[in-house]
Amino acid sequence: MNVPVLRPKDAALVPKLGIQMPIRMLAAAHEAAIPPSLAASVLMQESGGGTNVFGHDPTIFVGAGEVTKAKYLAYRAQRGAKGEGGMQGVGPLQLTFYTLQDEADEQGGCWKPYVNMLVGFQHLADNIRRSGMHAGVKAYNGSGDAAETYATTVLDRADTFKQVLGR
């Protein structure tokens, strides 16, 4: 996995974002071809702006704190090859389903914030290409009323970020 590189035209966005790891986020958003405003909004929704932590789903490793390589590998061993041991959100983009975690592992490690963001943003971009903006963002979270609320919240916040960032 390459080290994330900030594009010169994105440098002015860094102090405006108010999130953790803005350079990694901007590089991953660019690589995944999603707007920085949307990427920042999803990052805020998933992990309060880029915290590299385990999630709070009522399953294994609930609230296990910071994601480290050692903790993640212990989690993955308990999770099992196909999620049969339970699944938990991991990292800044809260990758929860085993296939996304495995994809991140193949790209360098789900516990690494940049890799985690890149895989999550690519998944989001694929959803949007398949289903459109609202439905694609909704699908990132799942289905049902909670996912509908998620999409509305993320897209409203993305509009705010777009005004602040100018794109």
Q: Features of this protein?
A:
167 residues, mainly alpha
Descriptive notes:
- There is one protein chain.
- It is built from 8 helices and no strands.
- With about 170 residues, the chain is mainly alpha-helical.
- It has a domain at about 10-50 and about 115-165.
- It is globular, with a radius of gyration of 15 Å.
What helical percentage do the residues reach?
55-70%
| Straight-line distance between termini | 27 Å
Radius of gyration computed on alpha carbons: 15 Å
Overall mean pLDDT score? Answer: 95
Which geometry do the CA atoms define?
Answer: globular
Task: Compute the number of helices.
Answer: 8
Q: Using DSSP, what is the number of strands?
A: 0
Please give the largest β-sheet.
none
- Class of secondary structure makeup: mainly alpha
- Order of helical and strand elements: HHHHHHHH
Percent range for β-strand residues = under 5%
Which runs of at least 5 residues are low in confidence (pLDDT < 50)? Answer: none
